[in-house]
Design goal:
The structure holds two protein chains of two kinds.
Chain A: E1 3-11, H1 16-21, H2 31-46, E2 52-57, E3 72-75, E4 79-82, H3 85-91, E5 96-99, H4 102-114, E6 120-122, H5 129-138, E7 146-151, H6 161-176, E8 183-190, H7 209-221, H8 224-230, H9 246-256, E9 264-269, E10 274-280
Parallel strand pairs in A: 1-8, 2-7, 2-8, 3-6
Antiparallel strand pairs in A: 1-10, 3-7, 4-5, 9-10
Chain B: H1 3-14, H2 17-25, H3 27-37, H4 58-65, H5 69-75, H6 79-90, H7 98-106
Helix pairs in contact in B: 1-6, 2-3, 2-6, 3-4
Classes of the chains: A alpha/beta, B mainly alpha.
Chain lengths: 287, 119
């Protein structure tokens, strides 16, 4: 059976690419520290020697729209074009082409449907920065096949937080039951407190540093019960109007497992939002 | 009220570089043209299968025609869509992040709970 060699949860900051590649007067003062943290984070994936990446993210009204909005969707294509015109325009992100893994996609869809998750699928999915940002930070060679899993954290009505956790638990089980000798890393990105298009956006820190501290503790310690007891669809409006992206972190806590302590924990307090990086090694840290 | 149609306007303008410029330069004309010609277009269907009943409420049409993003926030337009398109149109007129900070300032009177953006 396949082995889950790493579980990784991260914020996806679209400004990282530009910050890390800019030079001279254009280079922001926090870029060097940010790059150093990302390189340490990248090493946690590299050391796990994955063959294939399951990538959990959320479309930001790029391909998926309100006329036909899936709650959870699995990409099932041999390739994925990536990044959109407005991401080039606003963030300077490059166009990319990532290989897919149709066999693992088909496995997750079949097993997921049979386990009670009515997953949508797409044979022609263009992925956005929720998946390309972690490729850029964690695997810039973009050489490994991926299976994209999209969640709806953006267009209400949204699934409940516990459903994200349950899907994460199911993804872990399904990957471990995949009849293959491949080494799989499961990577998901979301947000801590975040405000977009509201009065608390683009401040000196994230809109709710206290929520961020609590959230980092929940994730790092695998404190799923405490997190689930406090986080509701309503409560997530309070730390910032785009904080529902935290549910992708909750999904990844489900993948990592209850009370699973992260092997790598790091964060970076930036203007507008806090960055946070977590890696778990389910079978022990690689040598 | 058609929060959905306001969102559809923001979404379909934002993804087209020519329409972003057209809306920046001629907001009222672009809104009128879009509502007459494009509002009913179902994005995965041919033009002959267009929607027949969608239209803006008067206050939505006026907010779009005047680039009034605080009013769009108040009317429940999706904050991400409004922010993204307005950055595309006006970021260039400010120092880096200047527009984003002014945007926050102009919304400063709003307190929780914010207007509901569910469609």
């Amino acid at each position: 059976m396949a082995e889950v060699v790493a579980v990784i949860a991260s914020t996806h900051h679209p400004f990282y690419y530009r910050a890390s590649t800019s030079t001279g007067a254009d280079r922001p003062p926090f870029a060097d520290e940010w790059v150093a943290k990302i390189e340490r984070f990248r090493d946690t994936l590299t050391r796990a020697r994955p063959d294939v990446l399951v990538m959990v993210g959320s479309d930001h009204f790029h391909q998926l729209w309100l006329d036909n909005m899936p709650q959870f969707l699995v990409g099932k294509a041999p390739f994925y074009d990536a990044n959109f015109y407005n991401e080039e325009r606003e963030f300077g992100l490059p166009r990319m082409l990532l290989p897919g893994h149709e066999d693992l996609s088909a496995h997750l869809l079949r097993q997921g449907l049979d386990a009670g998750f009515d997953l949508a699928f797409s044979n022609e999915l263009r992925i956005d920065h929720s998946i390309t940002c972690p490729i850029i930070t964690l695997r810039p060679e973009a050489d490994l096949p991926i299976v994209p899993v999209y969640t709806n954290i953006f267009a209400p009505p949204l699934p409940q937080p516990r459903r994200f956790v349950q899907l994460g638990e199911a993804i872990r089980e399904m990957v471990e039951a995949w009849p293959s000798d491949q080494r799989v890393a499961i990577i998901g990105t979301g947000h801590l407190s975040l405000e977009l298009g509201g009065p608390r956006q683009f401040g000196e820190h994230g809109p709710d540093p206290e929520f961020d501290r609590k959230a980092v503790d929940w994730i790092a310690g695998g404190n799923l019960q405490e997190c689930l007891a406090e986080v509701t669809l309503d409560s997530l409006h309070t730390p910032g109007n785009a904080t529902h992206g935290f549910m992708d972190f909750m999904l990844m806590m489900g993948v990592a497992g209850e009370n699973a302590k992260a092997d790598h924990v790091d964060s970076l307090d930036l203007f507008h939002t806090m960055e946070a990086y977590f890696t778990w090694y389910p079978n022990g840290a690689p040598a | 009220m058609s929060k959905y149609l306001v969102d559809k306007f923001l979404y379909t303008i934002d993804r087209d570089p020519d329409l972003v410029e057209r809306y920046r330069e001629d907001p009222r004309g672009t809104v009128e043209w879009w509502e007459a010609e494009r509002a009913g277009s179902i994005l995965n269907c041919v033009r002959a299968e267009a929607t027949t009943w969608l239209e803006f409420a008067a206050e939505e049409r006026e907010a779009l025609a005047t680039h009034d993003y605080p009013r769009l926030f108040e009317l429940g337009a999706h904050p991400f869509l409004t922010l993204t398109l307005f950055i595309a149109m006006f970021d260039r007129d400010y120092e880096p992040l200047g527009f984003q900070k002014e945007y926050a300032r102009r919304l400063a009177a709003f307190t929780l709970p914010y207007p509901d953006y569910a469609t």
